[in-house]
Design brief:
32% of the residues lie in helices and 16% in strands. The chain is an alpha/beta fold. It has one domain: P-loop containing nucleotide triphosphate hydrolases (Rossmann fold), CATH 3.40.50. The strands form two sheets. It has a six-stranded parallel beta sheet, with helices on both faces. The chain has a two-stranded parallel sheet with strand order 3-4. The longest helix has 14 residues. The radius of gyration is 17 Å and the shape is globular. It starts with 7 loop residues before the first strand and ends in a 7-residue tail after the last helix. The site of magnesium ion has 4 residues, from helix 1. Magnesium ion binds next to helix 1.
């Protein structure tokens, strides 16, 4: 399937818990502020809360939907949600269910029909299993959106980012990476992590895709102005 009918970005990361949702939400906000009608899609989520749970406002689908200005129907943001904090196929099995591999793909269509730009957030990293048969990278290949790789500004980020880029370059026919977002995912403490001031320069020197933006700890905007619409527009869209 290659159902791409409009521009979009696929947000992936070097690992789980490095701020993919936070970065995706900031991208959505800045695009909505620029006047774009943005759809947000998370094919599957695990470890989710339900309404009434103390942290429900922080659940990925709700955060994404709010950042995009509450477009369409909230239930469409993430049609498959499971409670256990495990990879989706295992979280589903814990509930006696399974991930619907077809719905992972078909759930995107609603947003393609109702938006002018779709932001898709993956689960974990590119090689995180997402169903019994699929990795996140399988969906990325089929959706065809350029990737944004969220990388945490912390010791170890060079290795993690290069491994993700190598995976992108070699998976199936290769996945297009639009750029890297360096995200300060925890309060910075230079006395504890001397790599904070050199990570960006090192990534810029070692990675082929550009570092397109940097997001300071809990910031509501990126350090630089980024034309996300252009980054998400490929030759096939034009
Ligand atoms: Mg997330």
């Amino acid at each position: 399937m290659n159902a791409k009918r409009l521009p979009g970005l696929m947000i992936t990361g070097t690992n789980t818990e490095i701020g993919k949702t936070y970065v995706a939400a900031r991208i959505a906000e800045s695009m909505v502020a620029a006047g774009h009608r943005v759809g947000v899609y998370k094919p599957v989520a695990s470890g989710v809360t339900v309404p009434g749970d103390p942290n429900h406002a922080l659940s990925d689908p709700l955060v994404l939907w709010n950042a995009a200005g509450q477009p369409g129907e909230l239930e469409r943001v993430c049609p498959q949600q499971f409670r256990a904090p495990l990879a989706p196929h295992l979280a589903a099995a814990a509930e006696g269910r399974s991930v619907d591999a077809r719905l992972l793909r078909e759930g995107l269509q609603y947003w393609q029909e109702t938006s002018e730009f779709v932001i898709v957030e993956g689960v974990g990293g590119l090689m995180s299993p997402i169903s019994d048969e699929d990795y996140v990278a399988d969906l990325a290949a089929e959706f065809g959106y350029p990737l944004i790789v969220v990388a945490p500004n912390a010791l170890g980020v060079i290795n993690q980012t290069l491994q993700t880029l190598i995976t992108a370059a070699t998976f199936r026919d290769g996945l297009d990476v639009a750029g890297i977002v360096l995200n300060q995912a925890a309060p910075p403490d230079p006395s504890d992590d001397a790599s904070l001031s050199s990570n960006r320069r090192e990534l810029e020197q070692r990675c082929v895709p550009p570092v397109v933006a940097e997001l300071p700890w809990s910031a509501d905007r990126f350090v630089e102005e980024v034309d996300w619409f252009r980054l998400g527009t490929t030759a096939a869209d034009e």
